[in-house]
Design brief:
- By secondary structure, the chain is mainly α.
- The chain has one domain.
- About 60% of the residues lie in helices and about 0% in strands.
- The protein contains 2 helices and no strands.
- Helix 1 packs antiparallel against helix 2.
- It is elongated.
Amino acid sequence: MMKLRTFIGILFVLASLLKLASIWHIIHWTWLERPPEDPWELYFVPVIFILVGANLIYEGVKGRRK
């Protein structure tokens, strides 16, 4: 059974990857193409979400092995 922490981490990583794919015009979903209010929001927020999500996944898997 997957822990809630791992599931939330996967959601964070997937959402961030979708946002980056939208920024790079790999996918074209209108609801993802809101222009960022600040320039740092363009890449900083998705990268932070990927790092947080990866940490949640790692902690969920590490805790499962104990």
